[in-house]
Specification:
It contains ten helices and ten strands. It is of the alpha/beta class. A four-stranded parallel beta sheet has the order 4-3-5-6, sandwiched between helices. Strands 8-7-9-10 form a four-stranded parallel beta sheet. A two-stranded antiparallel ribbon has the order 1-2. This is Fe3+-hydroxamate ABC transporter periplasmic binding protein.
Length: about 300
């Protein structure tokens, strides 16, 4: 049969294009475990298994596609209204499955891997997330936006974050170094090593993490170890956004340089302890604190 009319030729051309159009709707990215994650079309129902992933997805423009999150997913405020699927340490598998997500964002070092694997075995698409550098935060924003079909928003958020961090690096590139102890938790006493994202924030500001050489990402330490290191500044996140009570016990050690110079500084934990764009503001505050420490020499 000959297709001679314009209408017939258009219909034939459309038929030939359909496979290519279907293929173009497929979206793929590499996750932080080095695995290829592909969806037949941008995700419409996303479950986030860490507060950080929830925040990153909102930043990437995918907030309206989120249908579930774990406890303590509290930023932005809209995240508080999402149905809960347990905590990041113990997932409610039935709650996850009931939401029928087409994408689940897991936290490599935080979620129970056996539960994540089970979700995968049950047919869910899993993106494993673990931003370890500022560059990873920006890259994650772009990847999430690809998976959600919100590339313009994701790229803009990533560029803003990259530019902000680059500006801080330039500003403090020649600043005098400040030995820093960062307290990530009080009981048990915990800090971060040089591989942690918080340690990168310290370096950006011209600080030196006194426990950078420890082998564990978030090691437990004793107060004696802090006293032996004698940091010039002690920075703590505390248990709330405006609760610097963890700094008070250090005042019982007046021989510490940080105590003698009143270099006991608080940074709201949500701005420095989650791998999200809020780290830009947290790093700015940290840099101002270290500038104060330099001025008190």
């Amino acid at each position: 049969m000959a297709f001679t009319s314009p209408t017939a030729r258009f219909a034939l051309a459309l038929l030939l294009m359909l496979p290519a159009l279907a293929a173009s709707a497929r979206v793929c990215v590499d996750d932080d475990a080095g695995r290829r994650v592909c969806l037949e079309q941008p995700a419409e129902r996303i479950v986030a298994l860490s507060p950080g992933a929830t925040e990153l997805l909102f930043n990437a423009g995918a907030g309206e596609r989120l249908v579930g999150a774990v406890s303590f997913s509290d930023f932005p405020p809209a995240a508080k209204a999402l149905p809960r699927v347990g905590s990041y340490k113990r997932l409610d598998m039935e709650a996850v499955l009931a939401l029928k997500p087409d994408l689940v964002v897991a936290w490599i070092s935080g979620n129970p891997e056996t539960q994540v694997q089970r979700l995968e075995e049950l047919g869910l698409t899993i993106y494993r997330s673990e931003p370890l550098r500022f560059a990873d935060v920006a890259d994650t924003l772009e990847r999430f936006s690809v998976l959600a079909g919100t590339e313009r928003t994701g790229r803009a958020a990533a560029d803003h974050f990259r530019d902000g961090i680059a500006g801080l690096r330039d500003r403090y590139a020649d600043a005098d170094s400040v030995p820093v102890f960062y307290e990530v938790w009080e009981e048990p006493l915990m800090t971060v090593n040089g591989e942690h994202l918080i340690s990168e924030a310290i370096r950006v500001c011209g600080g030196v993490n006194v426990f950078a050489n420890l082998p564990t990402l978030a090691p437990r330490i004793g107060k004696e170890a802090v006293i032996a290191k004698d940091p010039e500044a002690i920075v703590a996140g505390g248990m709330g956004e405006d609760n610097p009570e963890w700094l008070e016990p250090w005042k019982r050690f007046p021989a510490l340089t940080a105590v003698q110079r009143d270099n006991l500084f608080f940074v709201p934990p949500s701005t420095l302890q989650r791998p999200t764009p809020q780290m830009l503001e947290g790093t700015r505050l940290l840099c101002r604190h270290l500038e104060t420490a330099r001025a008190r020499r």
